[in-house]
């Protein structure tokens, strides 16, 4: 169902983005980077947060970035990552396949500026073995995503 909701979303937005389905799991940044043969930063991880006012938001960030709590609070106020057991109900996608397309209900989408370092990124596509290749600008346009600066790059 989740993969189909992404297909429906892409078709409804007249996007010619093939969904890449692999025979291996891409449920983590490391697995996805290896499976797609790209650096971890190009994997666009999609996270769900519940803010202190009760709103749920979606944040998409590069795979090798971490949330900077000070920056996050400055933009959104207090918030916590949604517990794994709530993610599928909130987004319609399983953990490891969460993406900003074909959500179960409309949610505000934010894109961390860290994604802009790449010409092409790979967010999941609704399943733990799927992805699409898309530019950060196109991702912002198709999802009505707002750019925010709430991450820091992980020390290597």
Keywords:
156 residues; alpha/beta; YbaK protein
C-alpha termini separation: 37 Å
User: What percentage of amino acids are in beta strands?
Assistant: 15-25%
> SSE string, helix = H, strand = E?
HEHEEEHEHEEEHEE
Task: Let me know the CATH homologous superfamily.
Answer: YbaK/aminoacyl-tRNA synthetase-associated domain
Structural overview:
The protein has a single domain, classed as YbaK protein (Alpha-Beta Complex), CATH 3.90.960.10. Strands 2, 3, 5, 6, 7 and 9 form a six-stranded mixed beta sheet that branches. It has a two-stranded antiparallel ribbon with strand order 1-8. The protein has helices at residues 2-12, 29-36, 69-76, 84-91, 136-143, and strands spanning 20-21, 43-51, 56-62, 65-67, 79-81, 109-112, 122-123, 130-131, 146-148, 151-153. The protein has five helices and ten strands; from the N terminus they run H-E-H-E-E-E-H-E-H-E-E-E-H-E-E. The model has no long low-confidence stretch (mean pLDDT 94). It is of the alpha/beta class and 156 residues long.
Summarize the helices and strands and which ones pair or pack.
Layout: H1 2-12, E1 20-21, H2 29-36, E2 43-51, E3 56-62, E4 65-67, H3 69-76, E5 79-81, H4 84-91, E6 109-112, E7 122-123, E8 130-131, H5 136-143, E9 146-148, E10 151-153
Parallel strand pairs: 2-7, 3-6, 6-9
Antiparallel strand pairs: 1-8, 2-3, 2-5, 4-10
Task: Give a quick summary of the entry.
This protein has five helices and ten strands; from the N terminus they run αβαβββαβαβββαββ.
